[in-house]
TrEMBL record:
Gene3D superfamilies: B-lactam Antibiotic, Isopenicillin N Synthase, Chain (2.60.120.330). This is Non-haem dioxygenase N-terminal domain-containing protein. The lineage of its organism: Eukaryota, Viridiplantae, Streptophyta, Embryophyta, Tracheophyta. InterPro entries: DIOX_N (IPR026992), IPNS-like_sf (IPR027443), Plant_2OG-oxidoreductases (IPR050295). Transmembrane segments: none annotated. It comes from Eragrostis curvula (weeping love grass).
Length: 224
């Protein structure tokens, strides 16, 4: 049995190639759960997840209430949906277009950016540690974004030509939103607004981009 090196992942077939090769999804990519419990009983999960409005945080008239919601979301949930985040639509649109452009390239062109032993950065499946474990029906692309000197540019595609600029712009804009949220979280905690920013300054920031092929077998949803 093969095993992955520490910090690395075993090579596995490309899912985009498999979807055109097999009439059925291979068993290795199908996980049937014996039972599933509702995470939130009696509630619609989309309405239960905290929604934080950055615009309301910045508005003096609503900032206090929204700031309390932010603190509660961190304490009780650990995650939330952020709306009115201020990231320009054009920045989001350009990045989406470029990552789509990367995934639709021929396999041989994408393989140039494949992960290497001992490194999770790059294109491929992640955290594959044995040759018989269940896998996600998806292809992944993982990059380090910040600090800037942590970027290994050999994994950053040069095609589409605008990919690097698009990702850099997206990274910069989202970092601004995070910095703003940290200020308000510090306020809710009753500490200096800059205190959390100083703690998280220089912390690593990464991104995982995922390609999911179109559903090939509807009956999988029925547990077969």
């Amino acid at each position: 049995m093969a095993h992955a090196e520490a910090g690395g992942s075993l090579p596995v077939p490309n899912v985009q190639a498999l979807e055109h090769t097999y009439e059925q999804i291979p068993e290795r990519y199908i996980t049937v759960e014996e039972s599933a419990k509702e995470v939130i009983g009696g509630l619609d999960i989309s309405s239960a997840i905290p929604v934080i409005d950055l615009k309301r945080l910045l508005d003096p008239e609503s900032s206090k209430v929204e700031c309390a919601k932010l603190g509660s979301a961190f304490e009780d949930w650990g995650f939330f949906q952020l709306i009115n985040h201020g990231v320009p639509d054009e920045v989001i649109r350009n990045f989406k277009n470029d990552i789509t452009g990367f995934f639709i390239q021929p396999l041989e062109e994408k393989k140039v950016y494949s992960m290497v032993p001992g490194n999770l950065e790059g294109y491929g499946q992640h955290f594959v540690v044995s040759d018989n474990q269940k896998l996600d029906w998806a292809d992944l692309f993982y990059l380090m974004l910040r600090p800037r000197d942590s970027r290994d540019m050999k994994f950053w595609p040069s095609n589409p030509p605008s990919f690097r600029n698009s990702l850099d712009s997206y990274s910069s804009e989202t970092a601004k939103a995070v910095s703003c949220l940290l200020r308000f979280l510090a306020m809710d905690m009753g500490v200096e607004p800059e205190s959390l920013q100083d703690i998280f300054k220089g912390q690593p920031l990464s991104m995982r981009m995922t390609y999911y092929p179109p559903e090939a077998l509807p009956e999988i949803h029925e547990g077969h």
